[in-house]
Design brief:
- Chain A is α/β, with parallel strands linked by helices.
- Chain A has one domain: Rossmann fold.
- Chain A has helices at residues 16-28, 41-49, 77-85, 88-91, 104-112, 125-140, and strands spanning 9-12, 35-38, 65-68, 95-99, 117-120.
- In chain A, strand 4, helix 5 (104-112) and strand 5 form a beta-alpha-beta unit.
- Chain B has helices at residues 13-24, 38-46, 74-83, 102-110, 123-140; strands spanning 6-9, 32-35, 62-65, 93-97, 115-118.
- In chain B, strands 2-1-3-4-5 form a 5-stranded parallel β-sheet, with helices on both faces.
- In chain B, helix 1 crosses helix 5 and helix 2 runs parallel beside helix 3.
- Chain B is globular and about 40 Å long.
- In chain B, 36% of the residues are buried.
- The chains are: A alpha/beta, B alpha/beta.
- The interface between A and B is medium-sized, with 34 and 35 residues.
Chain lengths: 156, 156
Amino acid sequence: MTQENYRPILLVEDDPADANLLCRAFEKAKVLNRVIHLSSGDEALAYMAGVKEYADRSVYPLPALILLDLKLPGLTGMQLLQWKRAHENVRRIPLVVLTGDSDPQTVAAAYDLGANSYLVKRAKSSEILTLVKAIDQYWVRLNEAPLLVTGADAGT
Amino acid sequence: MPDGPVLLVEDDPADVRLIQRAFGKLPDVVKVIRLTNGDEAVSYLAGDEPYDNRGTHPMPCVVLLDIKLPRRSGFEVLEWLRRQSTALKRLPVIMLTSSRHSVDINRAYDLGANSYLTKPDTAGQLEELASRFQEYWLSWNELPDLHIGPTAKAPR
């Protein structure tokens, strides 16, 4: 495991209540990564592309992990998956779908579009905390993150 | 727990023994099928002889794939799998290798690996890894249904 694992975690979630519960769970679980919350697919695309207010990579570095809701205003999670897969410097960033929908068709489609993993949202705050701990244990502490230090990411 | 077994593609007999022992110590029974080279893995997944009976050679729910393998390498197996036009292409693949080189890590993600794990140094750490792997992939994560036809484009 390297420093790459401790890049920020990008949380793409439009529901303020869900986002709030998740962010609090990340704090409570003492996850070391900074959690950056974005509330629409368009914002997530701007962040990943490093454009508009996210142009400065020293402030908004590429993430170690993306947690993506599928139902989003504007650009949907599925469209974002497709965009991400087509873009060289972000395609290798692990992306975990985190959504309310567990329909097998949706799960299959998300994997087909390149999702690394698929998690279903929990309702109770105690379950959300366990879920966040599982994400931290697996994706931050066990999985090897890709190396993202490139010219495009150096903030130059 | 999912129906299908875990497919372990690993040529080193010592590593296989350690991995199988680690899985054997888990509180839940995880069936592990072991193959020793890349060609066998492709034949098994394609359902070619001698693996054409899915009753005795069931489709796995996830693959644990080493990189350095005789015949076809882990990268070649992964490339072959993601090139399939059937639902087989969405089968989750977790690399399990001794290589910590970022060039290997990045290549694995670029070829569509879902996750990348490195073999730990001690048996105790390997038990920990098996437990985290099982908890995350076979319990938290929603695995894709391989009977649903492939998705070509992002649904709205």
